[in-house]
Design goal:
Elements lengths: L1 H17 L3 E5 L5 H7 L8 E6 L3 H8 L3 H6 L5 H15 L3 E7 L14 E7 L4 E7 L4 H20 L8
Parallel strand pairs: 1-2, 1-3
Antiparallel strand pairs: 3-4, 4-5
Helix pairs in contact: 1-2, 1-6
């Protein structure tokens, strides 16, 4: 919990210096990234919107993710999280956005996408980055690691750096 708060605070400092806002598009974290951001007093100056789109139908309705993507590549995919980031940016007007979609468990995994598989994407209005992680632990641990990775990537992106790990 403390690490999330530290990351959110640092993100806010960077975004305020840029005069920019951020939006989140979350599935497996269920709003946890937005919750961490809004712990920070004054976050209304730089947090624009949070979209919790747990179902595929809501990813399409709220973020404009093409429905055919779910049939072609599944919800936990590069294509879907990239579309989620674009949708969050377009619908909210925020320059920065992060999107996450994954399998937090304890069930729902497949041989190709086991529990702990999470796709993340970050956008800054010009560039788009995405990567897949395989987090370990129980449902809470997967969700926490996802939120930390999402926020750490946003901090790097707001600093003008590549948000991808290693």
């Amino acid at each position: 919990m403390e690490r999330l708060t530290e990351l959110a605070r640092e993100l806010g400092t960077r975004l305020q210096a840029l005069g920019a806002q951020v939006s989140t598009a979350e599935s497996c974290t269920g709003g946890g990234i937005a919750e961490a951001i809004t712990r920070i007093a004054g976050s209304s100056a730089w947090f624009e919107a949070g979209y919790v789109t747990y179902s595929n139908a809501q990813k399409t309705a709220q973020l404009g993710v093409p429905a055919e993507l779910f049939l072609r590549v599944g919800a936990v995919s590069r294509e879907v999280v990239e579309a989620m980031v674009r949708g969050a940016q377009q619908r909210s007007g925020a320059r920065f956005a992060v999107a996450v979609s994954g399998i937090a468990g304890p069930d729902g995994g497949t041989p190709d996408k086991p529990v702990g598989t999470v796709w993340l994407a970050w956008g800054d209005g010009e560039r788009l980055y995405s990567e897949c992680h395989h987090f370990s632990g129980d449902r809470a641990a997967v969700r926490r690691q996802t939120a930390e990775t999402a926020l750490a990537g946003l901090v790097r992106l707001a600093a003008g750096e590549n948000p991808l790990q290693g």
